[in-house]
Automatic annotation (TrEMBL):
Protein name stated in the entry: ABC transporter ATP-binding protein
Keywords (A to Z) from UniProt: ATP-binding, Nucleotide-binding
Transmembrane feature ranges: none
InterPro entries listed in its UniProt record: AAA+_ATPase, ABC_transporter-like_ATP-bd, P-loop_NTPase
Protein origin, superkingdom: Bacteria
Domain ABC transporter span(s) in chain numbering: 6-235
Organism: Mucilaginibacter terrigena
Molecular function, one GO term: ATP binding
Pfam families: ABC_tran
Amino acid sequence: MKETVIKTDKLTKRFGDFVATNEISLEVYKGEIFGFLGANGAGKTTAMRMLCGLSIPSSGQATIAGFDVYKQTEHIKKHIGYMSQKFSLYEDLTVLENIRFFGGIYGLSNADIKTKSEALLNELGLQDEAKTLVGSLPLGWKQKLSFSVAILHDPKIVFLDEPTGGVDPVTRRQFWDLIYNAADRGITIFVTTHYMDEAEYCNRISIMVDGRIQALDSPANLKKQFNASSMDEVFFELARGAKRGE
C-alpha cells in the first residue's frame, strides 16, 4: 500500500473575485518525486503556499504529512522542508554556520547537528569550504547546499520552488542526483519547474492551466495520451486546448 503524504480535495484560493487555484484535487505518495508544472501565473506558487501552511485556503480540504491545512499549520511546518529559486541561506554566514543555524531552527540537538554537519559536508565535497562565506560560492553549489540544508531534519516532504533556475545543465543533473537520493530515503519531493526536460525525471506530474489541474499522470502516460514525443509538446497541447475552451 502506498502511503499518502499529501492529499487535497477541491482546494481553492480566491483573492476577491480572482480564483488563483481552482478546486485542486490530488494525492502524493511517500518517496515520490512529484512535479507541479504550469506557466507563470498558473497558480503553482499559490498552491504551494497553501500546502506549506503559509496561506489558508478559501475552500476545499487538504492534509500534509497527516496534518490539516486549516488547523495544524505549525505541525505541517515542522514536518516539511522548503527551498526556493531565490536561495534561502544566509550569504554572510559560512557554510558550516548556515548548517548549524538551520539545524537549530529545525530543533535538532547539538549532537545531531554535529553529526549531520559532518555528513553533509562530506556528501557535497565541501569539507575544505566549511569556513567559506556562502555568498562567495558558485550558484550551483549554493543550490545544492540549500537543498541539503532543507532536508537536514529528515522531513517527510520537501517543497522545491523552481530550484534549478539559472544553473547550468551539468549542475542541474547533479542537483537531481541529490533529489533521487532523498527520495530513496523516503522523503517526498514536491517540485515546481519550468524546464520541461526535468518533468521527465519525476514519477508523476500535474500540469496546471489557469488555476486548474488539466493533467496528472506519469510523463510516459501523458506523452502517450497526447501522442507527443516530449513534455514540451504535452504542455503546448494543454495550453492550446485551454485557449479553445476545451
